[in-house]
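To whoever picks this up:

The parser on our side crashed when reading a file containing two proteins. I've narrowed it down to the boundary between the first structure block and the second sequence. Both blocks are reproduced below exactly, byte for byte. First block:
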Amino acid sequence: MKCIFDQNSSCRRCLRNNIPCIVKPRANASANHEAIPIEVGTTPQSWTNENLQSILSRLNAIENVLQLNSDGVESPFDDQLGNQSEEPEDAALIGLWNAVVELKKITRLKSSHVWSRPTIKQLWNDFHINMPGLHFLPSKQTFSAPTPLLLSSMLYVSAVRHNSPDLAILSSDYFVVMCDAIANLSIPLAPEVDGQKRSSTEIEEAAFQNVLGIILAGLTCEASITTVGIWISIGYRLVLESCPKEVDERSREWQRLFAGLQILDLEHASLHMSCPIIPVQAPLSRLRISQEDDIYSLTQMMHTGLTHFTGRDLPTIWSCFSAPGEWPLLTTPFTAVDGAVIRDWATQLDRWLARFNTLTRRTTSEHDRMLIFRQYILHRLLVLSIYHPARGFNLFSSSTTSSERYELLVSARAALKMQRDDKSIWSNWDFVMVTWAALLVLQGVEGGVGEPDDFPLVQDLLNTLRAPHQPETYFRNQIANQLEASFQNISSPIEQNGYVAMSDQDHLTWSIFNEMSLQFADPGQWPLGTEM
């Protein structure tokens, strides 16, 4: 918002707001300084152009020393203060622009095109219009006054999924801004002073938004950014310190937020086979979600299963993408206890689907059922894949039975069909698991146990991953490169006569999932999502 001078004693903005005008022009200001009326004779020395130029020169020297105008970079507030007299302010966006000002203060990125008001406004609006709902927060959240961290996450998520090349290319810059905002939680630029102290309600609201911002950042960075685990730790500490003391409607929102952070933690742990940060039970009773909730049941079984296999240096699904061809050696053999844990995990997952994916549940909408079915398919694939990386990612290794191969390929094809019919998938973990499914299917094709739909399903996923206008370094391009390389190396034609036959002994020892579970939902019911 610039002070624009007329022939009055005050600038037009201050005159309109009936406030004293105390503006002091910058050295590089474009305003016509001679238009500022000066009352001659009120000071011992009359003002002249030479005196004014001398003062401005000294001010410019000070700015140079402080690097306020180095390299032609605009002041962080230039854009915030600009164009206000030309365009009326939207009162609904005041909270947004206040957050932008605060965000600029804590980031190393001062590029003007990132802070352009039209750009920010479009990304902000597109996020609220096109962003899919979060499963752990049933009601879509709208924040008129976001914290800098939440705003940075929204801008990054919106840019990285945008179909406009001019906006999508900004995603790498907004990623830097988002990381700076997260870092500021641990290493603030300045300590809080007495004049900045906030009420307990304001502190709680800010913490809620910051944790949500961390979750959004994690969902779009898990797998590719190893520090996501540290971000989760920060979010966990914020939850413990800031959640309401009373059990009311607001505390129930914190319960859902905690569940979302726990899901992110478990997804991160599953990709790297690292120990989960958040305990299986919330340490504070007011954070514990109902045992009748589908998220509660899913996190319980996932936490129990993962903690049995973490810390043993097992090869991971993500290592297939991060270091292709460099398969780590298995140092710890699988035991009968490992097999029992896998079977129990699979049984609980089947029961979970049967319990929550049913029309008889009054609290479950059709959309919720589809989300539950998606989680079932991807988690089923995860459970079946625990052993596979340790076998060199080889479906046809001597230690892999035909029934294991059959069950893994059935689950992989189900994941690909789901992706084909559900374009609302957007989180990194979902895309890693679906791309992992495609790699398994291509292995099956090369081994002579392919199906006619395999290539079209894989190609559809590649088209989704190769969305236009994405930076080459973007996560989806990275996993698409690995998938495309495997696709191009296929040398064997698709066999039309089905799978390799299973022996009775194989069937009795390795049919751990109920195959009928895949029929719980009609594929034609999947929603048609849209990309930004």
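<<boundary where parser fails>>
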Amino acid sequence: MEEENQQLRWEGYLDWRGRPALRGRHGGMVAASFVLGVEILENLAFLSNASNLVRYLGDYMHFSPSKSANNVTNFMGTAFLLALLGGFLSDAFFTTYHIYLISAVIEFLGLVVLTIQARSPSLMPPECQKATAETPCEVVSGGKAGMLFIGLYLVALGVGGIKGSLPAHGAEQLDETTTQGRKQRSTFFNYFVFCLSSGALIAVTLVVWVEDNKGWEWGFGIATISIFASIPVFLAGSRTYRNKIPCGSPLTTILKVLIGATLNRSPSNAVASMATSPSYPTQHSKGAEEEESGKAVPVPTQTPTNSLGFLNRAVINKPVHRALECTVQQVEEVKVVMKIFPIFAGTIILNCCLAQLSTFSVQQAATMNTKLGSLKVPPASLPIFPVIFMMALAPIYDHFIIPFARKVTKTEMGISHLQRIGIGLVFSIVAMAAAALVEVKRKRVASNSGLIDSTGQLPITFFWIAFQYLFLGSADLFTLAGLMEFFFTEAPTGMRSLATSLSWASLAMGYYLSSVIVSIVNSFLGTLNHRPWLSGSNLNHYHLERFYWLMCVLTGLNFLHYLFWASRYKYRSTASA
């Protein structure tokens, strides 16, 4: 009877009340579907402000275009980087279930602060109709600036916790021990990006229109309601979830192995001999015939692999302290983590390109004719192009492209995770080249129209900007879903939330790197011509096309770097290859 109960349980999982999770009752696509619904509301709340934030900071807080762009990239970067904290806490001390709920409340509080400030003119800097070099607009400062950044970074903290827990929570609902479960997991990550895009679609259309036409207090209010509504939707699935039991701090394991490999010097004869000529301890079989005969089955002791051999010293050499005693499994888990880091690094430049969608690209569109018939399209709604494309491509990719690829390659995955990421990187190169060419055309129109010194609207349609949005949207679809599934699949079980968070950390590094590159371009390259490329209050005076060409070269070099590591990577399981 006890054995039968064990077979009904999901090993290592609990339900929402802390009882053993049961097969057939907990987990599966129904449980994962609640996560997908929550993602729509969560991303709506986040992107409804982030997509248009650069204009809010410029028009209402009176930051310059470059400072507004840097503040947005720093905010976005912090939000995505804090996903590592959410992932770490989910693996080490709490469950993904609890981390989501805590993070949603924190984001809700941050949005309440921003809504109150946007609704109260006394909490904002004075209105400014026309700024000149002699009388610039008063930039937000003091307590008003403090309130702004407290609200923003409470939102960032909440978003980080959600991004670090929600994707892993959904993926954990699916059984990776079966072919069907692994295929469902791949489908989940594709539709996670689809739902992320669905929230973004509402954010960059309805909410952005409300912000531009009804006021920012209404925009922040919609975001506040959205994140609040996501909590009961998430709780509605509580009875179906299986929650992974926290395994302790993964960072402790990583540090212990690294320190042990460095400090452990004297070889331990017993362990050293295990590594060179493994012994075969006995283990009794559960079969009836073997139990009757009492025969023992030889099972080889696990030995460390040869890759990253310097880490083997943590288990082969005698530890200098008992706290540094490591198992072969711990060493092999740390090796996996170290092997996926070059792949992680290869996607940072791509996300640096994506940062331009919410900064300079929005500012470009603001100088162009944004009318669509009688409708005036807000510049911050331009991400609708990649969003719609991602929403259309995700189902096509999952239901047509992948099944066809499986038939052709005769593999479970069809297109491997690393191949998918590589396709995304190629799209990013094309996107930056397209962005540079469009900026050249935009400035030529400004020059020919005699509007180079004007901040008014140029006689060129904003549809030209759609090219860079389209290619970067394609890059995001291929790379983000591929990265999340790659990290989740390849990471050790006790590090999956943290590893999946690397997908968002790559976005964070990309946003921070964007700020660094802008600063370097202005500080160093600008001194060669005694004029910074990206400085001033008029975008027509920028050399944005040079910046985009620089990004194009960097993404090309990054792709070669990625190919070097991806071609040498060996998957943990053949199913992922």
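After patching the parser it read the second block fine. The beta strands are 9-14, 20-22, 243-244, 282-284, 296-298, 371-372, 375-376. The radius of gyration is 26 Å.
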